[in-house]
Amino acid sequence: MVRVPIGTAMRERAARRARGHRLRRAITQFGLTGKGDLSNCRDAHRSWVRESTARAVGLDAPARQGFKVWIRLRREAHQLRLRSYRWEKLRDRTAAAPSGDWRTDWPALLDQDLALGSELEKLRPPLIMVHDVSLLATASLSASRLRAQGVPSRWLYDITPSRGEEGATPVHRASAYRALEREFAGRADALTAATEQLAATMADDALVVREAPPAPAVTNGEPLPTVRNLCGLHGAGPLWVYAGESATHHLETAFASLAQLPDHHLALAGFADDDQVLALAEKHGVQDRIHTPPPAAPDLSAAYLASADVAVECCGCAVKDEASRDLLTAVYTQATLPTVSACGQTPEAFAKSVVQALDPAERPGADVRREHTWEHRVAPLLSLCRELTGNPPLVARTGVDWSGRPARPPKKVSRPRPTWTPMSHRTPVRLGLGPANYAGQLASFAHAVCRTRPDVSAQVFMATSPGTFSYPADIYLDSSKLGRLSVMLEQAERVFRNYTHLLGDAFLPVLGRFNGSHLDGDLPALLRTSIKVALLAHGSEIRHPVNHKERVAHSLFNDAPEGVVDRLTKLAERNRATAERFGLPSFVTTPDLLDDLPSAKWAPLVVDVEALACDRPVMERKRPVVLHAPSKRWTKGTSRALPVLTELHDRGVIEFRLAEGVDWSEMRELVQDADIIVDQFAIGSYGTFACEGMAAGKPVIAYLTETVSRAIGEQNPVVNATPGTLRETLESMLDDRHGTALIGERSARFAREYHDGTRTSAVLSDFLR
């Protein structure tokens, strides 16, 4: 730890500016120190005017005319004085309001940056992790300065939960928080957040790293204090523990239920005696069974709570925020405590629920406890750090060594080279593809079309942002710079001068930000040229959440972070309206999207079948390797499948591998080494990962809707399963290993026929004429 003194120069400078110029204030507010002085000044002037105008009546004409001029000059001088006074006061009020510029609203951050930034740059760190919004400027500026010096420094921002909360900070500080995030958060090389809800407030691709309790403290053999012992209940009846906030009206149901179970006790952990709580306990006659033990440590620990029998939650005040709720749940789980909530329950029903929870079978098992450990939850973060610093990420799996040691020596990761015919005016068809290039599909489309069509040359342009994988492309566009005039002009010249055909994917703009952030702004200009335009949809940009939940019982939108469903509903409706209004040729990469865009054609996903093909035998190992690789867990139904997969792993039936945050260059080896691929259960179709598995000759498990099954036909090799039937499906495949190996052979034939690009090129042929 390096402790750095922080100066006050910038704060003092801002304070001097706020006070204004002394001479100017002396002139504008001379003799007027408040509203009382201002009123007296007005009255004195009015009195003088009355007396002077009356005196002018007795003067001769020339003298009276001169006196009137003098009165007018005095009146104008008085008005000028009042206006200058009001101008100065208005300036004071304007200066006191937040400006929206963090440098003005919170000048202390400039002092902090001067002190910390120089010390940070002396360390020359390859990675900077920011856990406080006030340090955004320092991290961004230092990382940029280090890069200019040749130090490959990267930085990531852990999204701050309290950002923008007016009640948590002064008004100026809240304004500065928002300004800092607007200016610097988009420059971070990666974003992390403690919850999905927090991640969704800023970026869909933020990595969620949930809070979890730390490892147990080392006690040199001395016994740890426990909640039961501190309550003096050794050998007593069942003990409930409540670790929420002290709020009398929320404890009413718990106390009333406790009165019905005379041998039970309740420990209110983490807060001291409260007169209102004690009065409520006396009201229900349970005051002798309510305990307020002193905490064993500043934070509640699993070892401290493990001696209890059940954890209870009371509606409305369990925790202050979502991250705290996750942490408290993890502590309860690590303490092997079943949790019972009083929300919406009568005292009788709640008492019955508590009794049922005392069954030993209700306690969290080893697989559930493992998911709530920091050792398990930190693995994706460590992989992200390795990726940012150039070290290859570990494959997160059950039993992974999370200590931080690289799995392999660091290697330089370079962008892949295009494998299609480069853009040339010698070909009659010049195809532009961009800008999303999700999972490298535009690159695969370009390769497939050029391989089967010698009359086509192609150019893939891809908008990139921090944390995105480097898929093949000809042109990489920095998303944060798409609004710059030079970038927009260059992109417009590229499109209008070179392309005869344009395949725009994900309804994103293809001309930078010239016409907004949606493709419909660019289409009028494009359609006034001879360029033929088609639309390509991959998934969430056209998949309607409400309709999808009606079709799929375990839809991914049931688990979507807060706000995502509303946002994607509006996006899907806008995109479908765009496709229908312009009537352009439309394509989808997975057949389930035909339900959302009936006018489209299915252009199957394309993978490198030849490169993925392997001759490694399937299902010959004692413990077959089962691989699951979600891009985002909630989109794949991962949380529903993990309990089954980890249990089978713990029993020694399979070796389960969970690959998250793995670069495209490493996924091929993982797929080829697997025996069974588990794809997704929440969408209703199979994705790129499944296609790669089939190309490698691996059996694939996924949930398919009727629309997808009809589109594929009888050749479908995908083993259809839901989260509820996954265990049965896997056990059946393990029992019939020969039959499972044959499914892998069928999968390889299917991938070669549907996903090597030949069929996709044929679907696009009408558009490319």
Low-confidence stretches: 163-169, 316-320, 392-413
**Class of secondary structure makeup:** alpha/beta
Mean pLDDT: 83
Radius of gyration over all CA atoms, rounded: 34 Å
Keywords:
769 residues, alpha/beta, Rossmann fold, 5 domains, seven-stranded parallel beta sheet, five-stranded parallel beta sheet, globular
Short description:
The protein contains 32 helices and 21 strands. The model is unreliable at 163-169, 316-320 and 392-413 (pLDDT under 50). The chain is α/β, with parallel strands linked by helices and 769 residues long.
Please describe what this structure looks like.
The chain starts with 8 loop residues before the first helix and ends in a 6-residue tail after the last helix. The radius of gyration is 34 Å and the shape is globular. Helix 6 packs across helix 7 and helix 28 crosses helix 31. It folds into five domains: 66 residues; 106 residues, no CATH class; 145 residues, Glycogen Phosphorylase B (Rossmann fold, 3-Layer(aba) Sandwich); 174 residues, Rossmann fold; 145 residues, Glycogen Phosphorylase B (Rossmann fold, 3-Layer(aba) Sandwich). It is 43% helix and 11% strand. About 4% of the residues have low confidence. The longest helix has 36 residues.
Helices and strands in order:
Elements: H1 9-19, H2 22-28, H3 35-55, H4 61-96, H5 102-105, H6 108-123, E1 127-130, H7 136-148, E2 154-158, H8 171-184, E3 190-193, H9 196-200, E4 207-208, H10 227-230, E5 239-242, H11 252-259, E6 265-268, H12 275-283, E7 290-291, H13 302-305, E8 310-313, H14 322-334, E9 339-341, H15 347-357, H16 366-371, H17 374-377, H18 379-389, E10 429-434, H19 441-452, E11 456-464, E12 475-478, H20 485-498, E13 501-505, H21 523-527, E14 532-537, H22 545-551, H23 564-582, E15 586-588, E16 601-602, H24 609-612, E17 625-628, H25 633-636, H26 638-650, E18 655-658, H27 664-672, E19 676-678, H28 688-695, E20 700-702, H29 706-712, E21 719-720, H30 726-735, H31 737-754, H32 758-763
